[in-house]
Fold:
Amino acid sequence: MSQVRDIFFEEFYRELERVVADLRGEELRMEMPLQLVEALRRRWHEYEPSEDLSPLTLIGVDGGVQQSRFSHGWTVSVGRACALIRSPGEEALRVRKRVKIHIGRIFDDRDRAYIPSYVRLIAEYGVASEAAEEVVEAGGRPLVLMDGSLYLSRFPYAEREYLSHPRLLAELFEAMASLHILARDHGFPVVALAKDSTVFYLYMALLREILALSGIDGNLASIVAESPSPLSLRGKMGRLEEGEREVLEGLLGGVKPLCDQELVETSVDGPGFTHPLLLAPSIYYRRGDAVPSLYRRVRELLPGEEAERVVSALEAFFSRPPVAVTYWRPHRGARPFRLDISASSLGYGFPMKEIRRNAFVAEGRGLDAVREVLDHLGFWFCNPLEYNLPLRQADRLARFDRRLYASRYEPFIIKRIEERGVTLLSRVRDLREVVA
Structure:
């Protein structure tokens, strides 16, 4: 198709010019919310990572996933992940691998998008636990480093998901809980590094802190506490009295809000990290939702044994230690990274379900553990794009090329499924692409 003359380019260019000219001033203007900037600077810890490598055994974990879609809802997701074990003083890397496959009839487009990520996470957490157990049994202390986040920002709460793929969800909850419990019981950190994140966890925590320091409570403080983001908060401003709305407008300003990474990037210059923030389960930010009500709904939806398997997995997930988030700038001028860290390594080993709202860790608590992790990350920091050598190596091994999947994996999948008596028909869309 690349050799076919593009007959749409003139229309594309005219539309692009129209849309760019139509961008509103507030979408382009960067105006710093000064009270938030000052609040962030109060929560900033200057720190230059040590040049000495710590004695932790680094385990770099990454994964990839591919999916096949057939007619009548048949969908196959294949996730694979690897863990690279790098022991202090050893040049050779040890590799552990894991593959997870999910096959089923999926009728909802949302589930076809969610399931591959679940499959990849199960493979990643499974191989991470396997590698960490190996290091612990050998007398070492691991540092498990994953790509992305340790926090499920979109928790599976829809009844549809528990009816569609309950066993997959149970396996996901079990895999995540197992790694965090292993880390708590053996005293090692699990961290995840994200180079691009657009969340507002820090933003909202600072906003609540400003209100508390100002002595503002009542309806305004309650609405801010219930809002997971400034976008959600703006949607609730109609419920406020005029005076309360003016106070909030003064904090939010008349511009688009800054996500956490952007707020850090524009507020501080030198190397360091933000004060760790404990993250509550995202389910608590849904009005009327709570852990017990979720268990009750699962038992109503599923038959006895299957329901108890899912509820047991959910209980393990909510009973494991929470996750804390910090934002780290390696050196002056570098873009900040989001860093999720298992809160048990900061001294918070209690069940995650006990946290009802995001909250900063106590002053001085767990900061040495954060610095220990940053020393290790700083040692392996290479550049702003690849940012971490062990993660980059794991990514290169685990990355799942579509052509490789289609030529080597997919034919075996189709053959084995059809041997079980299921006829897999290609979707008309896919057949048209082959013919084209």
